Amino acid sequence: MDIWGKIFAAGYDRFLAPTEKAGLAGHRERLLVTATGRVLEIGGGTGANLPYYGDGVAELVIAEPAEAMARRLERKLPGYRIPTRILHARAEQLPLETGSFDCVVSTLVLCTVADPSEALAEVRRVLKSQGRLLFIEHVRSDDPKVAGWQDRLRRPWAWFGCGCQCNRRTAESIHVAGFSLAELRQDKLAKAPPLVRSLIVGAAARGG
Ligand SMILES: C[S@@+](CC[C@H](N)C(=O)[O-])C[C@H]1O[C@@H](n2cnc3c(N)ncnc32)[C@H](O)[C@@H]1O
Known about the structure:
Layout (H helix, E strand, L loop, with lengths): L2 H30 L4 E6 L14 E7 L3 H9 L8 E4 L13 E7 L8 H11 E12 L5 H9 L1 H7 L9 H7 L3 E9 L9 E8 L3
Parallel strand pairs: 1-2, 1-4, 2-3, 4-5
Antiparallel strand pairs: 5-7, 6-7
The structure holds S-adenosylmethionine.
């Protein structure tokens, strides 16, 4: 594993703390309380979502490909109230049965996966037909000036953010992947750098 990946994982919770306090934690809480049944979280990172899952979750599988992140997540699991296992897997290739999850959760992950359309196809595959994708993602800004900077600074930001692409049109990708967007809220991630401030929060139905 690369050194920066280890440093990024070690500093992740502290780096995000002001943004969590300024609103991100509230988004997590309101969204994740609606997760029910068998839940898959992709790119679970250090486990920032763990405190917010409600009693309706019967089982949680967290896919996390980065070892340094997964190690931190693992430390938070002893005593956790929901039966949970970590899967060392990328969202683009999930070693999971088709149609086996009620809910998939993606928070700040579709910016980072190498191939969002492959990842979303896998998410659809593992969801039951009535299943839902719950998401919180930072996206391309509607402001052309900010979007221009997101395009110009995409590469250095991706280096800093371990692959994070700051200019993705993620709501469109979710729609193109065949989901129907049942809820879509837009917000700004307070205390986050302007490049990653535009946020979408919502739920998408797998459909047919
Ligand atoms: C910005 S962090 C978000 C962590 C956590 N979901 C959160 O809300 O704080 C992005 C996470 O996606 C993971 N990741 C990167 N590529 C991935 C992929 N192809 N499939 C799944 N997760 C991936 C990273 O290892 C990292 O843990």
